[in-house]
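Following up on my earlier thread - several people asked me to post the actual chain instead of describing it. Fair enough. Here it is, all 267 residues.
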Amino acid sequence: MNPAGPELGDAFGMQLSDSLRLQRPVVAYVERSDGLITPSGSAQWLGDEESWPPAIRELLGNASGRVLDIGAGGGRHSAFLAGRSCDVTVLDNSPLALGICRERGIQECVLGDIGKSADLFRDSEPFRTVLLLGNNVGLLGSAAHGTEILRQLHDVTAEDALILAEGRRPVAVTEENHAYVTANRARGRLPGELLMRIRYRTTATSWFPYLFCDPSELALIAQPAGWEISDVEDFRYPGSPPAAPLLSYTAVLRKSGRPGTDAQSAG
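Reply from S.P.:
Thanks for posting it. Predicted structure:
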């Protein structure tokens, strides 16, 4: 008898929903394509303003006008901005997460994929601000895919639009990560490109690409899409050891012209 694998479904949304229902943090797991499994707590996706790093609060001070929150999760950043008179639309591929956003008072909730932004919002009023927070620079997935996503966002945003981004640098200090990075380099990929899925209880999401990249790599991904990176600030999350390496960063992407015709490799 072959053991059954996890059921395909909205594992991320189930995690958030259970955390709210039980009124306590719950743990899901991130599974990488090489079999590495690491825990992922729910508190980071649901915490209110007081729990955020100062760098995130400062970055959100740049938001204005129509806001598109990509990968909104539980809607913590969207609810914060909506309470400050921003017109917020959230985009997520988790139906349960969108339900949580609605319960937080976000009216415009769109179910869809970041890679379909142009199709989803082509006929909408242009956005002035785009959020890629909660390390959602990772949703760019890879160099080529990331450039295409940023091209689409260029098309659905105003000329003075900003992308407020949070990213995380790749690490190769463990044996497992070193082997993964080495394999990526051998295939001509960025060191921090991953294929992963989220598992919660007996449910798992589909596999999806994810990207850890440093600011210089993000700049190379963004440039051919008509964006330039600025205002990079390194930070640590509350509770991190003071001697821990500075892996997380915030950045602002501003339009630098029309997207180029050829994607530039960041590898």
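The longest strand covers residues 157-168. That should answer part of your original question.
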